[in-house]
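Pasting two entries for a bug report.
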Amino acid sequence: MLARARPYILLYLALTVVYHADLRPVDSGDALPASLIPFAIVLDHSVALDRFAPWLRGHVWYAASVIHPAHGHFFSSFPIAGPVLVSPLYLPLAFAGLDQWDPGSLVTLARIAQKFAATAITAFSAVVLLLLLKRLTTPRWAWYLTLVYALATETWSISSQALWQHGPSELAIIGCFYWLERWRELPARYHYLWFSGVCATAAFLIRPTNLVLLPALALAFLLARITIDEYVRLLAVPLIGGALLACYNLYVFQHLSGGYAVAVLHGSALPGLAGLFLSPGRGLLFYTPVVLFALCAFLPAASVARRQHKLQLEAAVAFIVLYSLVISQSVIWWGGYSWGPRLLTELTPPLIVLMAIGASAIDHPQRPIWFQRAFVVLALYSVLIQALGVFFYPNGHWDGTPQSVDGAHGRLWNWKDNPIVRTLRGGVYWEPYAIVGIALSKGIPAARVRLQELNVNPYEQAEPPAAPRADPGLP
């Protein structure tokens, strides 16, 4: 058993090292409440942020947009399922005497701890994906595509860097597809359908836009002529989860949509779709062009795999289409200040599933050699782009200068001055290495002084910066 588990353990450890290599937590308003909820659960046995709210309101200029007062308490303005589900990782802190710490110190610690939690969740999602891909394709391609998922997509530059919704969301989506494949192999094991439904429930509780996963699964089941009894096993838990979410939202926010800002729709999705996939500012094909090989799932050489994994194929395609349409109509489809197509991060697992189904077409003996070489080149390019986002961003400060991208949307189509070129010219974000170096050579007090000199902790800002970020309440 240990011998069989060793490759997965090594994968997890290797990715953990890579994800921590930038030595920094990310200062994001979106992730601030998520970083504090596990501390509230461990220390106060509650999801309310009452311990932190007074300090946040006095020191963080955007506090009012990320914490919500209700019934004499303060709650996250964002969905709480993600941080609640990762809170068991914080249980050792219950014995660390943190109850006596002041809120400011706890907020600083939470910002650091969330990076470890995000890294753990993201690395584990790669392990689960590998287990899934070995059922969809050859072991060799399963490993290739797992590394593509882990290092050549937003999984690295977004999911592994902070407790945004994306990391836990990806894990839930992968889990849904994994148990769906297990059930396809052994239809008599009905509990696999229940497990798939649990993961689908977790996916939309973590990130509401993942609700489209349910119609995607329902459509795939309809095309596969699944029985009513099997529908019930798949969808029973999501219905219960939706009811619980509705009750929480009504209690805290007095309306069903909760504090998570619902995307305001444009009259047409075409501008958003073009920007999400083709723009130099946020285009998926500009930042992660290797996903083009997902189309190989529809080549004649992949016909056997298509028939064998028809349910996975149809669910993945339906989810990709529905999710893209929803995000494309958001008033902030570019994701505010971020690296690459952040809001399309959830598309990564189904795209990798399609690539696995099409792997036989990529590797087909009659395929010209340049085809395989193109896959390697695009995969390496995608890895380099993600590394740029991890080790260089936000240097160059493309998002905010000369104008904020949130007010000047045309900049997203500027081919001469795009985030990749500007960030590359900005150089490596070296401040975390300087702080760690001083901590190792001169001690923690000196590192704290250097941290303040470099101003890398924006949670202490009293006023918004000159070019304010997008409203953290937007998706």
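Entry 2 (this is the one that rendered wrong in the viewer):
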Amino acid sequence: MTHVGPRIGSEDEFEGLYSEKFRTLVRPEGEFVQYERDRASLDIGLHLTTPSRGGRHVSHTRIWFQLKGIHERTVPLKAFTRSGEVAVSVRLDQLKFWFASPEPIYVVVYVEAADTFLIDDVRDIVDRQWGERFFAPGTFRARQKQATLKIPSDARLTRDRLVQMRKHQSMRIDGPFFRGRPLGHHLDPLRSSLNPLDPCLYVSLTERLLAVHDYRISNTLEPSLLFSGNNLKPEYLVLTEGRLYNTFEWMPQPFTEFGVDSDDDFRIEATPEYAHGPVAVCIHGNPQSHPDQERLQAFTGALLSKGIPRLLVCSNREDIGYFGAFFDGCRRCSVRCMPQLLGDVAYSLLTATVVYLEFRESVSWKYANYLWEVPNKGFPADAKERRG
């Protein structure tokens, strides 16, 4: 009997089997995305969702999967268990395309002998095998078409691994740059200011900013060392000592020029302030009072005796009197202190993109000034500004 229809071979059956098995595993984590035509060399896309009461919420994150399968006859169970990794071959041009993608792409390998999926982020694979040499001339042969990827046998697809994928975040980088850095937003870090936040939220935001600069607390202190009165709730007022392992920098907004002259578009920027190394930190989420000057002098004296030359103060308000009380009081004792008011904290927030993405739905803006688009000729276009 002659068969005239298209043939479905064993490889097609195998691919269909593990593809459906994979879809069943990841289906609870999102909504599938499919290309109408397969021209991007990506098998399955997943628009991630987060669980909520009574259903799921669609997130802002999409991830992509390139599926491969390894027959049991190719890699028996004993060989898989013994080797510690499996190797798959991919087209080199596709690998470079995946590595440059702004959205996460995973290589997923189904190992038939173990009836399991291995999964690894393309960027992690490339960093592990080639590092910064990946795009360098000479890393691959002139006419090389294929590259071999090595996937650890312990990189198994588990429920925990799927949940971790929710941490992925994508951001647009096609807007105005700030000193050559894409920020994922259009707000001008130098000339925008926050409205006062809920005290607990302010403390959480500031602690997160310090955490991404690797602030390691060595001692938690009583706020009464600086302030008198009864309104010293620990959730509103945090006083600590520790060490900043990464430089925490900001630009004092009161010394930054907002507007431009009619005949000159140059604007003055403040001299950067920074903290690094041993430091004391005061986070004041509900600043109803200024520091007691006698207590401040005693406190700064104690800091100097411990080799701490800097007091970092973050205040949930715009109060020049509050600023001056710390600035002048510390200066008399030779401890450096340039308090951050809401405009200064806004700079820290807007230049720490990962923190901005976490808190952008929780904050509001007193001044929302936008970055200028700079044409190729180097002359700034009209600035956009909005105050609310």
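Dev reply: Rendering is fixed now. As a check, the viewer should reflect this: The chain has two domains: 10-167, 193-387.
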